[in-house]
Amino acid sequence: MATLLDPDARGRVILVGAGPGDPGLLTVRAVEALASADVVVHDGLIDDRVLDLAPADAVRISVAKRRARHTLPQEAINALIVAHVKTGARVVRLKGGDPFIFGRGGEEVEAVRAAGLPVEVIPGVSAALGCAAEAMLPLTHRDHSSAVSFVAGQCKGLSEQDWSGLAGRGRTLVIYMGVATAEAIADKLMADGVAPDMPVAVLEKGTCPGHRALRTLLADLGAMVAREDVCSPAIIVVGEVVDLSDAEDKLASYARVAETMA
After folding, report:
1. Which pick of 12, 183, 215, 216 has the fewest CB atoms within 10 Å?
2. What local confidence, expressed as pLDDT, does residue 145 receive?
3. What are phi and psi of 63, to 5 degrees?
4. Where is the Tetrapyrrole methylase domain (predicted)?
5. Domains of the chain, CATH where assigned
6. Which of 38, 65, 205, 250 is the catalytic position?
7. Angle at 212 between CA 208 and CA 218, to 5 degrees
8. 47 catalytic, yes or no?
């Protein structure tokens, strides 16, 4: 059976995880897939150095997404991929992080399979793993956390989401796409019983130029995001493991909130 990386295999699509930003975090198989591409359909935050791994004559199509502002709706992206594959092209769908962690990769696989076309997925280093490693933040630790959960902070009906038990002592919660709703997230977690003085880190632009790792307490999360003018892409990590990281303490606010909890 031909594989997607077979130079004679055509009319195929491969979903490739591009990792959190740094081209050095691409897998070997991801590099091979890009080198074989006729068409690259890519997210908006993909580093140009990653795109340059595709052949010079490969067609590059950006389907950039931002909060409330999409170049194409997901259904149109699915149709675009299928249309190019049907021409016999080798299509690489290049996605930030990992395709199956808040990347809507599952929907794209469904669309390609529904069209009767072959598809493969190459995993990538997720934003949580890459950004946490850069900040020396262990998502699990034998003494501090035996479980880690991933949730999306940018979702409808945030207050109705059931996050009970996902954050607290001995657990780590990683929140994707939560910058715009940071204050509401903090309020929700505290209402669900998470201590206001639980350590929290915000990892902004992880593995990319201008990256920052900031640390405060849960009760101060929304205020810190505003005060520090944190921008997407960024992830939020909640848990005791945050105190093991190299994230920069925002000392004035951190100390003030801690005093109120004493």
Report:
1. 183
2. 97
3. -120, 50
4. 12-221
5. 12-125 (3.40.1010.10), 128-261 (3.30.950.10)
6. 65
7. 135
8. no
Tokens of 191: 């209402």
Helix axes 105-114, 74-86, angle to 10 degrees: 40
43 catalytic per annotation: yes
- Report d(CA 216, CA 258) in Å as an integer: 10
pLDDT of residue 72: 84
Q: For residues 238-252, give the mean pLDDT.
A: 89
From 6, 8, 22, 43, active-site residue: 43
What is the side-by-side strand order in the sheet with 248-249? 145-152, 170-176, 234-238, 199-204, 212-217, 248-249
Q: Cα 219 to chain center, whole Å?
A: 24
What is the value of pTM for the model shown? 0.89
d(CA 182, CA 152): 11
Average pLDDT over residues 146-157: 86
- Give the tokens for residue 86: 């049907």
Residue 241, Cα to own-chain centre: how many angstroms? 19
Give φ, ψ of 96 to 5 degrees. -65, 145
Spatial separation of the C-alpha atoms in residues 91 and 38, rounded to whole Å: 6
CA nearest neighbour of 137 among 164, 101, 163, 173? 173
Q: Give whole-number Cα distances, 195 to 191, 192, 247, 262, in Å.
A: 9, 9, 20, 12
Buried b (16+ CB within 10 A) or exposed e, 125-146: bbbbbbbbbbbebbbeeeebbe
